[in-house]
Amino acid sequence: MKETEAKGQLSQSCAFTIDTDIETPLQRKLAQLATTIGKFAYLAAFLIFVVLIVYDIILIFSDSSRVLISHNTLHALLNNCMVCVAILIVCVPEGMPLAVSIATAFSTDRMQEESLLIKDMTALESSG
Questions:
Q1: Inside any domain, residue 111
Q2: If you placed Cys at 84, which of 1, 14, 45, 120 could pair as Cys (CB 3.0 to 4.6 Å)?
Q3: For the range 64-68, what are the long-range contacts, defined as Cβ-Cβ under 8 Å and sequence gap of 24 or more?
């Protein structure tokens, strides 16, 4: 009975509750990085949109046969918008925190296979 009591005490001392409201240091850094990259993506998309619009306006005024409001002009404006939306979709890293969480979970499984005891996920993240 002493062996089972010792196992019970060990499992109680290792038991932890998962609190989803508290962010780990890694999650805070990833959120900050994602916010910074997102801001640069919005700025880059806006600047590229302005450059493309200016380019189209220069083409319109340099070619006397083109009209300011026409099917081709609207088509070019729509293409410019699609380019900027594609830049935003590619640059905003919304899946990055999920990828890090999955990698950490796989690392935890690997450590469990090697019989390592992990009590706190924050300790795992800060250990490298």
A1: yes
A2: 45
A3: none
Separation between Cα atoms, residue 48 and residue 88, nearest integer Å: 11
Q: How many domains, in total, are found in the chain?
A: 1
> String of b and e for 22-38 (b: at least 16 CB within 10 Å)?
eebebbeebeeebeeee
The whole domain housing 96 covers 23-127
Asked if residue 27 belongs to a domain, the reply is yes
pLDDT digits (tens, 9 = 90+) for 15-52: 555 555 677 777 777 778 778 888 888 899 999 999 99
**Cα–Cα separations (whole angstroms), residue 75 to 38, 52, 60, 128:** 27, 13, 13, 51
